[in-house]
UniProtKB/TrEMBL annotation:
Organism domain of life: Bacteria
Keywords: Signal
Family matches, as PANTHER family: BIS(5'-ADENOSYL)-TRIPHOSPHATASE, ECTONUCLEOTIDE PYROPHOSPHATASE/PHOSPHODIESTERASE
Organism this protein belongs to: Streptomyces regalis
InterPro entries for this protein: Alkaline_phosphatase_core_sf, Phosphodiest/P_Trfase, TAT_signal
GO molecular-function terms, A-Z: hydrolase activity
Signal peptide residue numbers: 1-33
Pfam families: Phosphodiest
Protein name, entry field: Nucleotide pyrophosphatase
Amino acid sequence: MTSHLSRRTVLTTTAATAATLALGTAGASQTHAVPTLPAGTSKDKVLVIGMDGLRHDRIDAANAPHLKAMMSEGTYGTSLLYANPMAATSSGPGWSTVSTGVWPDKHGVKDNTFAGRKYDRYPGFLARLAQVRPELSTYAAVDWKPLDTQGTVTPGADAKLVLDGDADGYTGHDATIAGEAEAIIRDQNPDVLFVYFGQSDIVGHNQGAGSQAYLDQIAVQDAYLGRLRAAIKARPTYASERWTVLVATDHGHLDAGGHGGSSIEERRTFVLATGPGIAAGARPVDTRLVDVVPTVFKQLGITVDPAWGLDGKPVQERSTDPFDALQPSLTGRVDETGVPAGVLGFTHTPPSGWSVINNAMGTGGVTEWRGWAFATDEFWSRTQRDQWRELNVRARGVFAVADSDEWADKNFSGTYDSTLVTPAYDVTGKTRVRLDFTTFYRQEGSQTAQVLVSFNGSAPTVVKSYTSDVVSQPQSLTLDVPAGAAGVHFRFRYTGSNNWYWVIDGVRISHS
Protein backbone atom coordinates (compact mmCIF):
# COMPACT_ATOMS: atom_id res chain seq x y z
CA MET A 1 0.00 0.00 0.00
CA THR A 2 0.97 3.64 0.84
CA SER A 3 0.13 6.56 -1.32
CA HIS A 4 3.37 7.25 -3.19
CA LEU A 5 5.85 4.57 -2.24
CA SER A 6 6.38 1.01 -3.38
CA ARG A 7 5.56 -0.04 0.17
CA ARG A 8 2.51 0.86 2.14
CA THR A 9 2.71 3.32 5.00
CA VAL A 10 3.66 1.35 8.05
CA LEU A 11 1.76 2.16 11.20
CA THR A 12 3.67 1.24 14.28
CA THR A 13 1.40 1.24 17.28
CA THR A 14 1.80 0.05 20.81
CA ALA A 15 -0.62 -2.51 22.13
CA ALA A 16 -2.29 0.23 24.16
CA THR A 17 -2.70 2.46 21.11
CA ALA A 18 -4.04 -0.44 19.06
CA ALA A 19 -6.56 -1.21 21.80
CA THR A 20 -7.65 2.45 21.86
CA LEU A 21 -8.09 2.44 18.10
CA ALA A 22 -10.12 -0.73 18.28
CA LEU A 23 -12.32 0.64 21.06
CA GLY A 24 -12.67 3.97 19.32
CA THR A 25 -13.71 2.35 16.10
CA ALA A 26 -16.07 0.02 17.90
CA GLY A 27 -17.68 3.00 19.53
CA ALA A 28 -17.89 4.85 16.24
CA SER A 29 -19.37 1.84 14.54
CA GLN A 30 -22.30 1.91 16.94
CA THR A 31 -23.27 5.34 15.59
CA HIS A 32 -22.36 4.54 11.99
CA ALA A 33 -25.55 3.87 10.05
CA VAL A 34 -25.38 0.74 7.95
CA PRO A 35 -26.42 1.78 4.43
CA THR A 36 -29.59 0.43 2.91
CA LEU A 37 -28.90 -1.27 -0.40
CA PRO A 38 -31.40 -1.64 -3.22
CA ALA A 39 -33.17 -4.98 -3.07
CA GLY A 40 -31.21 -7.68 -4.85
CA THR A 41 -32.56 -9.21 -8.05
CA SER A 42 -30.41 -12.31 -8.49
CA LYS A 43 -30.39 -15.79 -6.97
CA ASP A 44 -26.74 -15.95 -8.09
CA LYS A 45 -24.68 -13.97 -5.58
CA VAL A 46 -20.96 -13.31 -5.20
CA LEU A 47 -18.79 -12.21 -2.28
CA VAL A 48 -15.20 -11.22 -3.09
CA ILE A 49 -12.87 -10.83 -0.10
CA GLY A 50 -9.50 -9.13 -0.47
CA MET A 51 -6.82 -9.76 2.14
CA ASP A 52 -3.88 -7.43 1.59
CA GLY A 53 -0.37 -8.90 1.48
CA LEU A 54 -1.45 -12.40 2.53
CA ARG A 55 1.27 -14.97 1.83
CA HIS A 56 -0.67 -18.11 0.94
CA ASP A 57 2.17 -20.42 1.99
CA ARG A 58 1.71 -19.21 5.58
CA ILE A 59 -1.95 -20.23 5.84
CA ASP A 60 -1.18 -23.86 6.72
CA ALA A 61 0.69 -22.80 9.86
CA ALA A 62 -2.05 -20.42 10.98
CA ASN A 63 -5.23 -21.04 12.95
CA ALA A 64 -7.36 -20.54 9.85
CA PRO A 65 -10.18 -23.11 9.82
CA HIS A 66 -12.37 -21.14 7.42
CA LEU A 67 -9.71 -20.62 4.76
CA LYS A 68 -8.80 -24.30 5.09
CA ALA A 69 -12.45 -25.30 4.82
CA MET A 70 -12.73 -23.29 1.61
CA MET A 71 -9.66 -25.07 0.26
CA SER A 72 -11.39 -28.37 0.93
CA GLU A 73 -14.76 -27.26 -0.41
CA GLY A 74 -13.52 -25.31 -3.41
CA THR A 75 -10.76 -24.55 -5.90
CA TYR A 76 -7.43 -23.08 -4.76
CA GLY A 77 -5.00 -21.80 -7.36
CA THR A 78 -1.66 -20.22 -6.48
CA SER A 79 0.51 -18.23 -8.85
CA LEU A 80 3.17 -15.54 -9.09
CA LEU A 81 2.92 -11.86 -9.97
CA TYR A 82 4.89 -9.78 -12.42
CA ALA A 83 7.70 -7.50 -11.22
CA ASN A 84 9.23 -4.28 -12.54
CA PRO A 85 9.44 -2.99 -15.23
CA MET A 86 5.85 -4.17 -15.80
CA ALA A 87 4.77 -3.16 -12.28
CA ALA A 88 5.92 -3.32 -8.69
CA THR A 89 4.59 -6.01 -6.36
CA SER A 90 2.60 -3.39 -4.48
CA SER A 91 -1.05 -2.80 -3.73
CA GLY A 92 -1.94 -0.35 -6.49
CA PRO A 93 -1.07 -2.72 -9.34
CA GLY A 94 -2.20 -5.78 -7.39
CA TRP A 95 -5.73 -4.65 -6.58
CA SER A 96 -6.05 -3.09 -10.03
CA THR A 97 -5.29 -6.53 -11.48
CA VAL A 98 -7.83 -8.20 -9.18
CA SER A 99 -10.55 -5.63 -9.84
CA THR A 100 -10.16 -5.17 -13.61
CA GLY A 101 -9.24 -8.70 -14.69
CA VAL A 102 -6.32 -7.48 -16.79
CA TRP A 103 -2.56 -7.26 -16.27
CA PRO A 104 -0.71 -3.98 -15.57
CA ASP A 105 0.36 -3.57 -19.20
CA LYS A 106 -3.36 -2.94 -19.86
CA HIS A 107 -4.75 -1.26 -16.73
CA GLY A 108 -1.69 0.98 -16.57
CA VAL A 109 -1.09 0.99 -12.79
CA LYS A 110 2.60 0.30 -12.15
CA ASP A 111 2.94 1.47 -8.54
CA ASN A 112 1.06 3.17 -5.74
CA THR A 113 0.99 6.57 -7.46
CA PHE A 114 -1.67 5.08 -9.81
CA ALA A 115 -0.18 7.27 -12.55
CA GLY A 116 -1.25 6.08 -15.98
CA ARG A 117 -4.33 4.20 -14.77
CA LYS A 118 -6.75 3.30 -17.55
CA TYR A 119 -9.91 2.46 -15.65
CA ASP A 120 -11.94 4.18 -18.38
CA ARG A 121 -10.83 1.41 -20.74
CA TYR A 122 -10.57 -1.36 -18.13
CA PRO A 123 -13.01 -0.56 -15.29
CA GLY A 124 -13.28 -2.45 -12.03
CA PHE A 125 -15.81 -5.27 -12.01
CA LEU A 126 -18.38 -3.35 -9.92
CA ALA A 127 -18.26 -0.51 -12.45
CA ARG A 128 -18.63 -3.04 -15.27
CA LEU A 129 -21.61 -4.64 -13.52
CA ALA A 130 -23.25 -1.20 -13.18
CA GLN A 131 -23.02 -0.94 -16.98
CA VAL A 132 -24.18 -4.40 -18.01
CA ARG A 133 -26.39 -5.50 -15.08
CA PRO A 134 -27.47 -2.28 -13.30
CA GLU A 135 -30.31 -4.06 -11.51
CA LEU A 136 -27.83 -5.95 -9.33
CA SER A 137 -27.43 -4.73 -5.74
CA THR A 138 -23.72 -4.09 -5.08
CA TYR A 139 -21.58 -3.07 -2.10
CA ALA A 140 -17.91 -2.34 -1.44
CA ALA A 141 -16.01 -1.82 1.81
CA VAL A 142 -12.34 -0.77 1.96
CA ASP A 143 -10.00 0.81 4.47
CA TRP A 144 -7.10 1.52 2.12
CA LYS A 145 -8.53 4.77 0.76
CA PRO A 146 -6.86 4.79 -2.67
CA LEU A 147 -9.06 1.85 -3.67
CA ASP A 148 -11.86 4.44 -3.53
CA THR A 149 -10.17 7.74 -4.34
CA GLN A 150 -8.27 6.33 -7.33
CA GLY A 151 -11.34 4.50 -8.66
CA THR A 152 -9.91 1.00 -8.37
CA VAL A 153 -12.73 -0.88 -6.65
CA THR A 154 -15.67 1.19 -5.43
CA PRO A 155 -17.05 2.88 -8.59
CA GLY A 156 -20.35 1.30 -9.57
CA ALA A 157 -21.22 0.14 -6.05
CA ASP A 158 -24.73 1.04 -4.85
CA ALA A 159 -23.32 1.58 -1.37
CA LYS A 160 -19.80 1.74 -0.03
CA LEU A 161 -17.93 2.00 3.25
CA VAL A 162 -14.61 3.83 2.91
CA LEU A 163 -12.37 4.12 5.97
CA ASP A 164 -8.82 5.43 6.33
CA GLY A 165 -6.58 2.75 7.77
CA ASP A 166 -3.40 4.72 7.12
CA ALA A 167 -4.67 7.57 9.28
CA ASP A 168 -6.55 5.66 11.94
CA GLY A 169 -5.11 2.15 12.01
CA TYR A 170 -6.40 -0.89 10.19
CA THR A 171 -7.20 -3.11 13.16
CA GLY A 172 -10.37 -1.31 14.18
CA HIS A 173 -11.43 -0.43 10.64
CA ASP A 174 -11.10 -4.05 9.51
CA ALA A 175 -13.40 -5.00 12.39
CA THR A 176 -15.90 -2.32 11.35
CA ILE A 177 -15.85 -3.57 7.77
CA ALA A 178 -16.41 -7.14 8.90
CA GLY A 179 -19.33 -6.08 11.10
CA GLU A 180 -21.06 -3.97 8.47
CA ALA A 181 -20.61 -6.55 5.69
CA GLU A 182 -21.92 -9.25 8.03
CA ALA A 183 -25.03 -7.20 8.80
CA ILE A 184 -25.71 -6.41 5.15
CA ILE A 185 -25.33 -10.04 4.08
CA ARG A 186 -27.52 -11.31 6.92
CA ASP A 187 -30.23 -8.63 6.99
CA GLN A 188 -30.42 -7.23 3.45
CA ASN A 189 -30.41 -8.71 -0.05
CA PRO A 190 -27.11 -7.80 -1.79
CA ASP A 191 -26.08 -9.51 -5.01
CA VAL A 192 -22.35 -8.72 -5.27
CA LEU A 193 -19.95 -7.54 -2.55
CA PHE A 194 -16.26 -6.64 -2.38
CA VAL A 195 -14.89 -6.63 1.18
CA TYR A 196 -11.28 -5.67 1.94
CA PHE A 197 -9.07 -6.24 5.00
CA GLY A 198 -5.76 -4.37 5.29
CA GLN A 199 -4.13 -5.23 8.61
CA SER A 200 -2.42 -8.35 7.21
CA ASP A 201 -0.19 -6.07 5.15
CA ILE A 202 0.64 -3.83 8.09
CA VAL A 203 1.72 -6.80 10.24
CA GLY A 204 3.70 -8.12 7.27
CA HIS A 205 5.61 -4.82 7.10
CA ASN A 206 6.08 -4.37 10.82
CA GLN A 207 6.90 -7.90 11.91
CA GLY A 208 7.44 -9.93 8.76
CA ALA A 209 5.56 -12.73 7.07
CA GLY A 210 7.72 -15.21 8.97
CA SER A 211 6.50 -14.03 12.37
CA GLN A 212 3.96 -15.43 14.80
CA ALA A 213 2.22 -12.05 14.70
CA TYR A 214 1.58 -12.55 11.00
CA LEU A 215 0.06 -15.97 11.65
CA ASP A 216 -2.07 -14.41 14.40
CA GLN A 217 -3.32 -11.78 11.96
CA ILE A 218 -4.25 -14.46 9.43
CA ALA A 219 -6.32 -16.01 12.23
CA VAL A 220 -8.09 -12.69 12.86
CA GLN A 221 -9.03 -12.29 9.21
CA ASP A 222 -9.96 -15.95 8.94
CA ALA A 223 -12.46 -15.33 11.74
CA TYR A 224 -13.92 -12.44 9.72
CA LEU A 225 -14.23 -14.79 6.76
CA GLY A 226 -16.02 -17.28 9.01
CA ARG A 227 -18.49 -14.63 10.14
CA LEU A 228 -19.29 -13.64 6.56
CA ARG A 229 -19.75 -17.26 5.49
CA ALA A 230 -22.01 -17.85 8.49
CA ALA A 231 -24.04 -14.75 7.62
CA ILE A 232 -24.61 -16.15 4.12
CA LYS A 233 -25.86 -19.45 5.51
CA ALA A 234 -28.07 -17.65 8.05
CA ARG A 235 -30.03 -15.90 5.32
CA PRO A 236 -33.69 -17.06 5.31
CA THR A 237 -33.54 -17.34 1.50
CA TYR A 238 -30.17 -19.16 1.47
CA ALA A 239 -31.65 -22.50 0.32
CA SER A 240 -32.86 -20.95 -2.92
CA GLU A 241 -29.69 -18.93 -3.60
CA ARG A 242 -26.43 -19.80 -5.32
CA TRP A 243 -23.53 -18.14 -3.47
CA THR A 244 -19.95 -17.92 -4.70
CA VAL A 245 -17.20 -16.76 -2.31
CA LEU A 246 -13.78 -15.72 -3.59
CA VAL A 247 -10.72 -14.81 -1.51
CA ALA A 248 -7.63 -13.26 -3.11
CA THR A 249 -4.60 -11.15 -2.28
CA ASP A 250 -2.66 -8.46 -4.13
CA HIS A 251 0.95 -9.51 -3.43
CA GLY A 252 3.11 -11.43 -0.99
CA HIS A 253 5.70 -10.40 1.60
CA LEU A 254 9.28 -11.09 2.49
CA ASP A 255 9.80 -13.26 5.56
CA ALA A 256 11.40 -10.23 7.19
CA GLY A 257 8.65 -7.93 5.93
CA GLY A 258 8.16 -5.77 2.88
CA HIS A 259 7.25 -6.08 -0.77
CA GLY A 260 7.50 -4.24 -4.06
CA GLY A 261 10.45 -6.22 -5.42
CA SER A 262 10.93 -9.31 -7.55
CA SER A 263 11.48 -12.12 -5.05
CA ILE A 264 9.29 -15.20 -5.20
CA GLU A 265 7.91 -14.39 -1.73
CA GLU A 266 6.81 -10.90 -2.79
CA ARG A 267 5.24 -12.26 -5.99
CA ARG A 268 3.05 -14.91 -4.33
CA THR A 269 -0.70 -14.63 -4.92
CA PHE A 270 -3.72 -16.93 -4.81
CA VAL A 271 -7.36 -17.22 -5.80
CA LEU A 272 -9.57 -19.36 -3.55
CA ALA A 273 -13.16 -19.97 -4.67
CA THR A 274 -16.22 -21.91 -3.59
CA GLY A 275 -19.57 -21.95 -5.33
CA PRO A 276 -21.77 -23.65 -7.92
CA GLY A 277 -19.76 -25.50 -10.54
CA ILE A 278 -16.46 -24.91 -8.72
CA ALA A 279 -14.72 -28.20 -8.01
CA ALA A 280 -14.05 -29.22 -4.41
CA GLY A 281 -10.42 -29.80 -3.45
CA ALA A 282 -9.05 -28.72 -6.84
CA ARG A 283 -5.49 -27.34 -7.05
CA PRO A 284 -5.20 -26.13 -10.64
CA VAL A 285 -1.82 -25.14 -12.05
CA ASP A 286 -3.31 -22.71 -14.58
CA THR A 287 -5.01 -20.12 -12.29
CA ARG A 288 -3.79 -16.50 -12.32
CA LEU A 289 -4.79 -13.39 -10.38
CA VAL A 290 -6.70 -11.97 -13.38
CA ASP A 291 -9.19 -14.85 -13.04
CA VAL A 292 -11.23 -13.26 -10.23
CA VAL A 293 -13.30 -11.02 -12.54
CA PRO A 294 -14.20 -13.65 -15.16
CA THR A 295 -15.21 -15.96 -12.32
CA VAL A 296 -17.54 -13.29 -10.90
CA PHE A 297 -19.13 -12.81 -14.32
CA LYS A 298 -19.53 -16.52 -14.99
CA GLN A 299 -21.14 -17.13 -11.61
CA LEU A 300 -23.61 -14.32 -12.34
CA GLY A 301 -24.42 -15.76 -15.77
CA ILE A 302 -22.85 -12.82 -17.60
CA THR A 303 -21.20 -13.53 -20.95
CA VAL A 304 -17.86 -11.75 -21.25
CA ASP A 305 -17.66 -9.47 -24.28
CA PRO A 306 -14.31 -10.00 -26.08
CA ALA A 307 -14.18 -6.22 -26.52
CA TRP A 308 -13.59 -5.91 -22.78
CA GLY A 309 -10.13 -7.37 -23.34
CA LEU A 310 -10.04 -9.44 -20.15
CA ASP A 311 -6.91 -11.51 -19.54
CA GLY A 312 -8.48 -14.03 -17.17
CA LYS A 313 -10.77 -17.02 -17.31
CA PRO A 314 -13.14 -18.54 -14.73
CA VAL A 315 -11.30 -20.56 -12.09
CA GLN A 316 -13.32 -23.69 -12.87
CA GLU A 317 -12.34 -23.71 -16.55
CA ARG A 318 -9.13 -25.58 -17.27
CA SER A 319 -6.86 -24.59 -20.11
CA THR A 320 -6.47 -27.05 -22.98
CA ASP A 321 -2.78 -26.23 -23.21
CA PRO A 322 -0.90 -29.45 -24.05
CA PHE A 323 2.08 -28.43 -21.92
CA ASP A 324 0.06 -28.45 -18.68
CA ALA A 325 -0.31 -32.23 -19.02
CA LEU A 326 3.41 -32.43 -18.19
CA GLN A 327 2.91 -31.16 -14.63
CA PRO A 328 3.06 -34.63 -12.97
CA SER A 329 6.35 -35.45 -14.71
CA LEU A 330 8.26 -32.27 -13.81
CA THR A 331 11.54 -32.80 -11.98
CA GLY A 332 13.88 -30.78 -9.78
CA ARG A 333 17.04 -28.86 -10.52
CA VAL A 334 20.18 -30.32 -12.05
CA ASP A 335 22.59 -27.41 -12.60
CA GLU A 336 20.44 -24.46 -11.48
CA THR A 337 21.72 -23.65 -7.99
CA GLY A 338 19.29 -20.75 -7.51
CA VAL A 339 16.28 -23.06 -7.60
CA PRO A 340 15.49 -24.81 -4.30
CA ALA A 341 15.83 -28.57 -4.41
CA GLY A 342 12.16 -29.14 -3.59
CA VAL A 343 10.82 -27.17 -6.56
CA LEU A 344 9.72 -29.60 -9.27
CA GLY A 345 9.49 -27.44 -12.33
CA PHE A 346 11.10 -28.65 -15.54
CA THR A 347 11.36 -31.50 -18.03
CA HIS A 348 12.81 -32.05 -21.49
CA THR A 349 10.15 -34.62 -22.38
CA PRO A 350 7.56 -33.01 -24.68
CA PRO A 351 3.83 -33.76 -24.61
CA SER A 352 2.51 -36.69 -26.62
CA GLY A 353 2.82 -36.02 -30.35
CA TRP A 354 5.27 -33.12 -29.89
CA SER A 355 9.01 -33.33 -30.50
CA VAL A 356 12.18 -31.31 -30.04
CA ILE A 357 14.93 -31.28 -32.66
CA ASN A 358 18.37 -30.64 -31.15
CA ASN A 359 20.64 -32.08 -33.85
CA ALA A 360 22.17 -28.63 -34.49
CA MET A 361 22.43 -27.80 -30.79
CA GLY A 362 25.77 -27.01 -29.22
CA THR A 363 27.20 -29.22 -26.51
CA GLY A 364 27.46 -28.68 -22.76
CA GLY A 365 25.79 -25.75 -21.05
CA VAL A 366 23.25 -25.79 -18.23
CA THR A 367 21.38 -29.09 -18.41
CA GLU A 368 17.92 -27.65 -17.73
CA TRP A 369 18.06 -25.34 -20.76
CA ARG A 370 19.82 -27.46 -23.34
CA GLY A 371 17.24 -27.07 -26.12
CA TRP A 372 13.54 -26.38 -25.68
CA ALA A 373 12.43 -27.25 -22.14
CA PHE A 374 9.06 -27.27 -20.40
CA ALA A 375 8.93 -25.37 -17.13
CA THR A 376 6.83 -23.46 -14.61
CA ASP A 377 7.03 -19.81 -13.58
CA GLU A 378 8.08 -20.92 -10.09
CA PHE A 379 11.07 -22.75 -11.57
CA TRP A 380 12.14 -20.65 -14.57
CA SER A 381 11.82 -17.18 -12.99
CA ARG A 382 14.08 -18.25 -10.10
CA THR A 383 17.02 -18.87 -12.43
CA GLN A 384 17.95 -15.18 -12.51
CA ARG A 385 15.93 -12.29 -11.10
CA ASP A 386 15.32 -8.95 -12.80
CA GLN A 387 15.93 -10.09 -16.37
CA TRP A 388 12.21 -9.82 -17.20
CA ARG A 389 11.43 -13.51 -16.67
CA GLU A 390 8.92 -12.30 -14.08
CA LEU A 391 6.92 -10.65 -16.89
CA ASN A 392 5.71 -13.95 -18.36
CA VAL A 393 2.22 -13.17 -17.07
CA ARG A 394 0.07 -14.63 -19.86
CA ALA A 395 1.65 -18.06 -19.68
CA ARG A 396 -0.19 -20.48 -17.40
CA GLY A 397 0.99 -23.62 -15.65
CA VAL A 398 3.68 -25.31 -17.75
CA PHE A 399 5.11 -23.55 -20.80
CA ALA A 400 7.83 -24.22 -23.39
CA VAL A 401 10.99 -22.13 -23.09
CA ALA A 402 14.20 -21.80 -25.07
CA ASP A 403 16.71 -19.86 -22.95
CA SER A 404 20.17 -19.39 -24.43
CA ASP A 405 21.12 -16.97 -21.67
CA GLU A 406 20.74 -19.52 -18.89
CA TRP A 407 22.09 -22.36 -21.06
CA ALA A 408 25.33 -20.43 -21.51
CA ASP A 409 25.94 -20.08 -17.75
CA LYS A 410 27.97 -23.32 -17.80
CA ASN A 411 30.81 -24.31 -20.13
CA PHE A 412 29.51 -25.03 -23.64
CA SER A 413 30.59 -25.14 -27.25
CA GLY A 414 28.71 -24.21 -30.40
CA THR A 415 25.49 -22.24 -30.51
CA TYR A 416 21.97 -22.69 -29.23
CA ASP A 417 19.78 -24.10 -32.02
CA SER A 418 16.61 -25.95 -31.05
CA THR A 419 13.26 -26.52 -32.75
CA LEU A 420 9.95 -27.36 -31.08
CA VAL A 421 7.59 -29.28 -33.38
CA THR A 422 3.82 -29.64 -32.97
CA PRO A 423 1.92 -32.82 -33.78
CA ALA A 424 0.44 -33.12 -37.27
CA TYR A 425 -3.10 -31.77 -37.54
CA ASP A 426 -5.67 -32.89 -40.08
CA VAL A 427 -6.63 -30.17 -42.58
CA THR A 428 -8.26 -32.37 -45.21
CA GLY A 429 -10.78 -30.35 -47.19
CA LYS A 430 -10.05 -27.15 -45.25
CA THR A 431 -9.21 -23.78 -46.78
CA ARG A 432 -7.48 -22.07 -43.86
CA VAL A 433 -5.58 -23.10 -40.76
CA ARG A 434 -5.07 -20.84 -37.75
CA LEU A 435 -2.33 -21.03 -35.15
CA ASP A 436 -2.90 -19.26 -31.83
CA PHE A 437 -0.38 -19.12 -29.02
CA THR A 438 1.01 -16.88 -26.30
CA THR A 439 4.59 -15.75 -26.65
CA PHE A 440 7.23 -13.96 -24.60
CA TYR A 441 10.32 -13.08 -26.58
CA ARG A 442 13.29 -10.95 -25.62
CA GLN A 443 15.59 -9.93 -28.46
CA GLU A 444 19.36 -9.50 -28.32
CA GLY A 445 22.17 -9.62 -30.84
CA SER A 446 22.00 -12.13 -33.65
CA GLN A 447 19.52 -14.55 -32.07
CA THR A 448 16.57 -15.66 -34.20
CA ALA A 449 13.05 -16.85 -33.46
CA GLN A 450 10.99 -18.27 -36.29
CA VAL A 451 7.61 -19.94 -36.71
CA LEU A 452 7.59 -22.37 -39.63
CA VAL A 453 4.82 -24.37 -41.29
CA SER A 454 4.91 -27.65 -43.19
CA PHE A 455 1.99 -29.14 -45.15
CA ASN A 456 2.05 -32.85 -45.99
CA GLY A 457 5.63 -33.18 -44.75
CA SER A 458 7.01 -30.56 -47.14
CA ALA A 459 10.09 -28.51 -46.33
CA PRO A 460 9.20 -26.08 -43.49
CA THR A 461 8.54 -22.49 -44.56
CA VAL A 462 9.03 -19.45 -42.31
CA VAL A 463 5.70 -17.69 -41.68
CA LYS A 464 6.71 -15.45 -38.76
CA SER A 465 10.01 -14.05 -37.48
CA TYR A 466 10.56 -12.11 -34.25
CA THR A 467 13.13 -9.32 -34.29
CA SER A 468 12.06 -7.24 -31.27
CA ASP A 469 10.70 -7.80 -27.77
CA VAL A 470 7.19 -9.21 -27.38
CA VAL A 471 6.36 -9.21 -23.68
CA SER A 472 3.82 -11.97 -23.05
CA GLN A 473 1.22 -11.35 -25.73
CA PRO A 474 -1.29 -13.50 -27.64
CA GLN A 475 -0.36 -14.27 -31.24
CA SER A 476 -2.45 -15.47 -34.16
CA LEU A 477 -1.42 -16.64 -37.63
CA THR A 478 -3.91 -17.66 -40.34
CA LEU A 479 -2.62 -19.46 -43.42
CA ASP A 480 -4.20 -20.75 -46.60
CA VAL A 481 -4.23 -24.53 -46.89
CA PRO A 482 -2.76 -25.69 -50.24
CA ALA A 483 -5.06 -27.72 -52.45
CA GLY A 484 -4.89 -31.39 -51.60
CA ALA A 485 -3.11 -30.90 -48.28
CA ALA A 486 -4.15 -33.40 -45.59
CA GLY A 487 -1.87 -32.51 -42.67
CA VAL A 488 0.01 -29.58 -41.18
CA HIS A 489 2.51 -29.11 -38.42
CA PHE A 490 4.24 -26.04 -37.06
CA ARG A 491 7.75 -25.50 -35.77
CA PHE A 492 9.23 -22.96 -33.37
CA ARG A 493 12.97 -22.58 -34.03
CA TYR A 494 15.19 -20.51 -31.77
CA THR A 495 18.89 -19.86 -32.27
CA GLY A 496 21.27 -17.80 -30.19
CA SER A 497 24.53 -17.64 -28.28
CA ASN A 498 24.26 -16.40 -24.71
CA ASN A 499 21.43 -14.05 -25.74
CA TRP A 500 17.93 -14.06 -24.21
CA TYR A 501 14.94 -16.39 -24.46
CA TRP A 502 11.67 -17.35 -26.14
CA VAL A 503 8.55 -18.70 -24.38
CA ILE A 504 5.63 -20.42 -26.10
CA ASP A 505 2.38 -21.39 -24.38
CA GLY A 506 -1.30 -22.04 -25.03
CA VAL A 507 -0.80 -23.44 -28.53
CA ARG A 508 -4.11 -23.98 -30.35
CA ILE A 509 -4.64 -24.98 -33.98
CA SER A 510 -8.02 -24.55 -35.67
CA HIS A 511 -9.23 -24.56 -39.27
CA SER A 512 -12.05 -23.49 -41.53
